[in-house]
Amino acid sequence: MEKIIVRGGRQLKGTVKVDGAKNAVLPVIAASIIASEGKSVIHEVPALADVFTIKEVLTNMNADVRYANNTVTVDASKPLTTEAPFEYVRKMRASVLVLGPLLARYGHAKVAMPGGCAIGSRPIDLHLKGFEAMGADVHVGNGYVEVSAKGRLKGAKVYLDVPSVGATENIMMAAALAEGRTIIENGAKEPEIVDLANFLNKMGAKIVGAGTETIKIDGVDQLHGVEHTIIADRIEAGTFMVASAITKGNVLIKGAEVEHMRSLVSKMEEMGVIIEEEEDGIRVIGPDKLKATDIKTLPHPGFPTDMQSQMMALMLNAEGTSVITETVFENRFMHVEEFRRMNAKLKIEGRSVIVEGPVELQGAEVAATDLRAGAALILAGLNADGYTRVTELKHIDRGYVNLTEKLASLGADIERVDDDKIVIDLAKRRSEIS
Ligand SMILES: CC(=O)N[C@H]1[C@@H](OP(=O)(O)OP(=O)(O)OC[C@H]2O[C@@H](n3ccc(=O)[nH]c3=O)[C@H](O)[C@@H]2O)O[C@H](CO)[C@@H](O)[C@@H]1O
Ligand SMILES: C=C(OP(=O)(O)O)C(=O)O
């Protein structure tokens, strides 16, 4: 079995570079199939398992997708098939992001229903509500959702009951080729939405307001391939910020954008962490003593749910009682049980976790229950007594490129081993593209 083994106690020092954002690259690659002419060339593409999955989804639809040296080239000018089977959606929920582009270009898309996952039920009703408002018929049956439209989609006003990232992206992509104006109200404001809108606008779309709650899209007749560079991953950056803080380290995180992480920076500063903005990134210096604080996860610009478990690792090292309230996903506390194996004092009360700190964390055998939980367990292991062995690495590989190597380069005592000495497929694929 593959595992990451961490021995706690090393102070992290040095410089680490953040890769391109998973949550930006997936919608951008999905959007590239809207272009009926020209190639899209996408730079700073991280070599993540999810990127290989979206590449397979598009290739299976007959798009020509190449991946080399962190650049993906997509030529979708040949006719595409309009179906994404369960095998892809099962691996990665973000496969549903092909619904909008296919519906816009072909008036038809059929994708396996994503179902729930370890962090919650994660329905796609708001994506479908948007498509229906634009005149599409939606049919759900036999584990698939099929959307179809007679002729072009029609621009419409769509109010999202919650500012869903995926729904905002899917509706924005569908609306880019619709007839007339679409207005998304209560849309998601994440930096990844802005990156997608910038990509679509370069392709010829007319989108204004991305990054605010009201997004206006004037549909155009056709979109073309373009060149684009993906923004830095704010969640990977945040994970390294916690790694530095938890080890009383001093790390420069290159590429990190303070503008994308205001809530995290503020909360870490409240805990006593020193954060300095430098020309090419953020320097994070861990204090001798961390102070307790409270966080509540919220849509951007609120505190990101994707940093909740990593912050829990940090709070375990802080003096006093911290409270974490998760409002975005209904079941994102699976890591609590794993932290308890490391001697954490945690109490779940409804949608909140009470964290008593500081505790002497002990190395233990733990499992990554989702990708951020996996990263959080590694972070806890950096400051635990003895060896922490983290399994279920497939989750971590969905969202982090070379996490072990990057932490080791900062001085962490960490290695990835495979008990069964099986050649790691992902590592092989990464070396093929580098
Ligand atoms: C690939 C990607 O970008 N993933 C991110 C994206 O996921 P994703 O786009 O799936 O997350 P959403 O913003 O859609 O989900 C937020 C909440 O809205 C609910 N909801 C969503 C859609 C819908 O149709 N109906 C509905 O009720 C969800 O169940 C959840 O409780 O945003 C999440 C919230 O910041 C992040 O944790 C994920 O890392
Ligand atoms: C929940 C996450 O991603 P996804 O939506 O791809 O599952 C995440 O990145 O933490």
TrEMBL record:
GO terms for molecular function: UDP-N-acetylglucosamine 1-carboxyvinyltransferase activity. It is found in: Cytoplasm. Pathway: Cell wall biogenesis; peptidoglycan biosynthesis. It comes from the Bacteria. Its main location: cytoplasm. The modification 2-(S-cysteinyl)pyruvic acid O-phosphothioketal is found at C117. SUPFAM superfamilies: EPT/RTPC-like. CDD domains: UdpNAET. GO terms for cellular component: cytoplasm. Residues 6-407 form the Enolpyruvate transferase domain. Phosphoenolpyruvate binds at K22, N23. The active site is at C117. Its EC number is 2.5.1.7. UDP-N-acetyl-alpha-D-glucosamine binds at R93, R122, P123, I124, D125, L126, D306, V328. It holds the Pfam family EPSP_synthase. PANTHER family: UDP-N-ACETYLGLUCOSAMINE 1-CARBOXYVINYLTRANSFERASE. This is UDP-N-acetylglucosamine 1-carboxyvinyltransferase.
